[in-house]
Amino acid sequence: MTRIHASADVDPSAEVGEGTLVWHLAQLREGVRVGTDCVIGRGAYLGPGVVVGDRCKIQNHALVYEPAVVADGAFIGPAVVFTNDLNPRAVTPAGRLKGADDWECVGVTVGEGASIGARAVCVAPVHVGAWAMVAAGSVVTRDVPAYALVVGVPARQIGWVDRSGQRVAERPADTTQA
């Protein structure tokens, strides 16, 4: 059964899959698609057109800006931020307030089963590979390979993880998914 808390702001054009829970004060903007059996935490924000696969968890106060795509089974931790602007400015060089036509959105993509730890920032455009793990507080400025474990500011790879998130000595063999 899909449950959307009364305080959540879900645009009428957003699609929320069967069995998904949308908690207090979450905002799902126009054209958002959320798959089945997901959890969208308190105060989470999903920008226009964001796509979230099945069985994902997007924790409290995560900010997922368009045009992000999150694959099945991914975990987006509390207060994670996905950016979407290569050259963020409030105004044009002429001093006019920028509008939607004054910039091009770039997105973050997250592969199947990947995990992004609490308060991490993913600076678009980046791709976090399938089953990769981004440590809490990291700042991802370049693509993360499938099954990689990355930490720090900027994030750097320090090892490999398996599908359960446990550190392993070598890259798992089933890395055909990115």
From TrEMBL:
Pfam families this protein is in?
Hexapep, Hexapep_2
Asked if the record carries the keyword Coiled coil, the reply is: no
- Which regions span the lipid bilayer? none
> Which InterPro entries does the UniProt record give?
Hexapep (IPR001451), Trans_hexapeptide_repeat (IPR050179), Trimer_LpxA-like_sf (IPR011004)
Q: What span is annotated as the signal peptide, if there is one?
A: none
The entry's keywords: Acyltransferase, Transferase
Source domain of life is: Bacteria
Q: Which GO terms describe its molecular function?
A: acyltransferase activity
Record-given protein name: Acyltransferase
Q: Which organism is it from?
A: Nocardioides panacihumi
From the broadest rank down, the organism's phylogenetic lineage runs: Bacteria, Bacillati, Actinomycetota, Actinomycetes, Propionibacteriales
